[in-house]
Design goal:
By secondary structure, this protein is α/β, with parallel strands linked by helices. Helix content is about 35%, strand content about 20%. Strand 16 (about 350-355) and strand 17 (about 355-360) form a beta hairpin.
């Protein structure tokens, strides 16, 4: 089908919740994509921090193919090795407790909220401006963005919003009625804003004082995106629970809520569940992603590529922020610039708002591709 035919099919058959660009991609390899006409693009969005080890990485393709040929699904009433091995690996890499596997980031957040309420049967949660945690009703209620919340009010009650990166305001908002504080160590959809160490430390101290859980949303900033396994590592502040998704599957739908040992056994049989969570094929793929990210020197290279990209953008006179390969720069008319980069420069980025361009390439991006992307951005802005 042509793009025009796909657009007509979408208009007839698909609920209109996405504003798509007029490009159909049919093939991907590494950091490259090809459209239906054979034109080649450089992908610096990675499906919004999903294609963590590049498009169609051979290790991921092999793991998924081999597992799909043996067993695809039986459900969680029985044992399958890939899911349990994945849960053990994630728990060891993160907080040392246990994992609940699910299918998406929003589902991981819903599990984290339920975990907090089960552990601390209190009414309130503390969240932060510019935060984003998902679009299901609980996760949306934790996402203080008026444009996203207003059409679906009334939302789940009990969410107290504090000013962006304000350590004092956060500390004051936590009370004996607080079940948990939910934060992104590096805010993603809000425009790539790393929270200060002072704010994360204040959150930890306030939670400890009042017996609340500290939950970090690592859905976008985790899985090596910042040059370390987890976004919180740079601060040294450890949460009681965390959510992961996106890059964990390398392109396949998966999520997980991970706990520290103290909260590993809070949820009981029947408290939570999911039909497809931790299925053999998806879990096999996620295990392959962990294998690649865990290769010696891999994360150090991510940090180096991130520094190269940041320096290159700064060299264009841009105001850059972020960590590792999770970067953004301020830009007037950002949606227009993102579209121009796609259609004229064949570079995938996206606008998180009217004045921010976000860049999150696959973590396997090469130095040459970073230089190429900076050149394309310079050409578009010129």
């Amino acid at each position: 089908m042509s793009v025009a035919e796909l657009q007509a099919l979408e208009s007839r058959a698909v609920i209109a919740t996405y504003a798509r660009n007029p490009v159909e991609f049919v093939r991907g390899q590494g950091t490259r994509l090809w459209d239906a006409d054979g034109a080649e693009y450089l992908d610096f969005l990675a499906g919004i921090s999903v294609v963590q080890i590049g498009h169609c990485h051979p290790a991921l393709v092999a793991a998924v193919t081999e597992q799909a040929q043996r067993l695809m699904h039986v459900g969680n009433l029985y044992y399958t090795e890939p899911s349990l091995r994945l849960a053990a690996r994630l728990s060891e890499l993160a907080l040392g407790g246990k994992a609940f596997m699910c299918n998406s980031g929003a589902e991981a957040v819903e599990c984290a909220l339920k975990l907090a309420r089960r552990a601390r049967p209190r009414g309130r949660f503390v969240v932060m401006q510019r935060g984003f945690h998902g679009r299901t009703m609980g996760a949306l209620s934790a996402t203080p963005q008026e444009s996203k919340q207003a059409p679906f009010a009334p939302l789940v009650p009990g969410f107290d919003v504090v000013a962006h990166d304000d350590a004092d305001a956060l500390a004051a908002a936590v009370t004996p009625a607080t079940a948990a504080v939910l934060l992104e160590p590096v805010q993603g959809e809000g425009g790539i804003w790393p929270l200060s160490d002072a704010t994360l430390r204040a959150a930890r101290a306030a939670c400890d004082e009042h017996g609340a859980l500290l939950i970090f949303d690592e859905i976008q900033c985790g899985m090596g995106r910042t040059g370390q396994w987890w976004g919180f590592e740079a601060s040294g502040v450890r949460p009681d629970a965390m959510t992961v998704a996106k890059g964990l599957g390398g392109g396949l739908p998966i999520g997980a809520c991970l706990t520290s040992p103290a909260y590993a056994d809070v949820l009981k049989p029947g408290d939570h569940g999911s039909t497809f969570a931790g299925g053999p094929v998806i879990a096999a793929g996620a295990n392959a992603v962990l294998d690649v990210l865990g290769e010696e020197g891999f994360l150090a290279t991510v940090a180096e590529r991130g520094e190269q990209l940041s320096d290159g953008l700064a060299g264009l006179g841009l105001d850059v922020r972020g960590r590792g390969l999770m970067l953004a720069f301020a830009c007037d008319q950002a949606p227009t610039v993102a579209r121009r980069l796609l259609l004229e420069q064949r570079l995938l980025v996206n606008a998180t708002g009217p004045d921010t361009i976000r860049l999150m390439p696959p973590l396997t991006v090469s130095g040459e591709e970073v230089s190429e992307a900076v050149g394309r951005i310079g050409a578009a802005l010129a």
